[in-house]
Amino acid sequence: MSSAQESRRASLRDADDDQSRATRLLLIGAYEQAAAARLARPSVTWLSERAGVGRSTFYTHFASVEDLAIATITASFEPIATSDTDRRRAHTDDRRAIARDGLSAIIESIERSRAVLDYTVHIGSRAAVLDRLIAQFAHYTRETIAVEYDHLDAARRDIVTEYVSAGTAHTVLQWVEGRMPLRRSALVDQLLDVLPVPLTR
After folding, report:
1. Which domain holds residue 45?
2. Euclidean distance between the first and final Cα of the chain, in Å?
3. Is the pLDDT confidence value at 6 over 70?
């Protein structure tokens, strides 16, 4: 994949225009149909036809079926991340309360997507799902880290972003899969206790 394609996808992912959002929602809806039908593995052609878009349009927005799958699972992350950074910039709320609300909302979102998550793991690999989930966490966490770590250079902020994203994604995925016998509120409390101090104090 060329860096030009990656840049185009990134700009469309971040685009706030109605057409880009509508196209992505159509493709997400097609993937949800595939998950509901438990297809052995949906092809780009099948997904594009269901969404009513061309294959080239699919690849304009997503690099692969796996990328679409993770976008489907994390579709509600963007407003959660925006709320988090807006509240942090406003300096009106306690950092721990902001972090608690954000973590709770992300976990609830992944819980709601459990059937799609299970299907995605079933047709691919858990390792690939976790890797892409970490990348999505990082994408939406980057601005929060920038707000709270504005004194660090970009390279050091990237390290904090990857550290927080990988740990959170891995832990939440294990919990959703039933590997941690905790109530959601207890999971959130434990995550809050291990997040870096600037995010919660």
Report:
1. 3-63
2. 41
3. no
Report long-range pairs for 62-66 (Cβ below 8 Å, ≥24 apart).
Answer: 62/9, 62/27, 63/1, 63/5, 63/6, 63/9, 65/31, 65/41, 66/120, 66/124, 66/128, 66/129, 66/132
Please indicate, yes or no, whether residues 48 and 85 belong to a single structural domain of this protein. Answer: no
The total of structural domains in the chain comes to 2
Q: What is the pLDDT of residues 150-193, one digit of tens each?
A: 999 999 999 999 999 999 999 999 999 999 999 999 999 999 99
Residues 84 and 126 in one domain: yes
4: region left, alpha or beta (phi > 0 left; psi from -120 to 50 alpha) = alpha
In the listed set 63, 82, 112, which residue is the last one of a domain according to the structure?
63
Residues 133 and 185 in one domain: yes
Q: What pTM value is reported for the model? A: 0.85
